[in-house]
Amino acid sequence: MHFRSYADLHDDVARGLSMLPDRPDLVVGVPRSGLLAAGIASIILNVPLASIDGLAAGHVFGTGKTKQVRTRSAEVDGPPRVLVLDDSVSTGLSLREARATIAGIAGLGPVTFAAVYGEAASHPEADTVFAAVPQPRMFQWNFLHHDALGRCMIDIDGVLCRDPLAVENDDGPNYRRFLSETPPLLLPSKRVAALVTNRLEKYRPETEAWLARHGVVYDALHMLDLPDAEARAEADLSAFKAETYRRSSALLFIESEIGQAVAIAEATDRPVLCTATWRLKTTHTGAYLARQARRQAAYRALDLPRRGKLAARRIAGRLLGEEAVSALGDRLRRSRDTDQAGGKT
């Protein structure tokens, strides 16, 4: 599985624009996801933006008034050079339809048809492909609406909804209220192979009711079969998810917490998408995610109440090293000083 985030999209658009032989005077996005890529391109170039149908109707978004530099389009004599951009190309149908529409619009100069991502470095329907990303692939902006969800496992808390607050996590009435009333965060529009959660099995009725109310369709719901929150606190939570993933034929596990994402991937040697970092955990990114997990643990340790700080500092020292802990402490103190100076609470 290959994955690209919003940050990757920005970087790949910027890199692709730098490779174009001529700077465009107008960027046109292919609906719907192509408008995202086209918007990034138009801001980088500081040139007007349009959709395919908008351009045909004469509707073009100009450059922002906060810009103090002149845009190239303001200096153009004659028909503008146009970049028609889609986020990806596979069958080529969208770009083919875009060519047909653009061909009927008068007054345009040279038109370049491009896609940010292709399965290979070139495609018959694209004049240029910015980056090759083979199948199977998912993007941050479409993974919840991807047919591949039928072969994915997804965590619930932190992905489909937020994690419970400490006051809500009482293994009692507050927690049941959270399970029933918490608003959705990210909702899949496709059937999911399985939901895998560290919620306790006894909360299955509330969990199933919430999922049904928000239209989440899935084949299986795996929950932790332990008696109470105290037993869960002593359990290896990532081991339950890893074992469930290992026994399945799923292509991908989608997990919100960095430490668990690292542990699941290491235990199964299979890809895990971490929504805290929007990185796909593979053998090449495991070290990065592990560092992020250690850094988060150290931050939490440094920010504990005073009575536990000495013990926490020793733990953080073992995780990151004394020099890194001192640097983190300095950053936290500077952050607090800035907040207090600005009157924040």
TrEMBL record:
<protein>
    <submittedName>
        <fullName>Phosphoribosyltransferase</fullName>
    </submittedName>
</protein>
<dbReference type="Pfam" id="PF00156">
    <property type="entry name" value="Pribosyltran"/>
</dbReference>
<dbReference type="GO" id="GO:0016757">
    <property type="term" value="F:glycosyltransferase activity"/>
</dbReference>
<keyword id="KW-0328">Glycosyltransferase</keyword>
<dbReference type="InterPro" id="IPR029057">
    <property type="entry name" value="PRTase-like"/>
</dbReference>
<keyword id="KW-0808">Transferase</keyword>
<feature type="domain" description="Phosphoribosyltransferase">
    <location>
        <begin position="21"/>
        <end position="103"/>
    </location>
</feature>
<dbReference type="InterPro" id="IPR000836">
    <property type="entry name" value="PRTase_dom"/>
</dbReference>
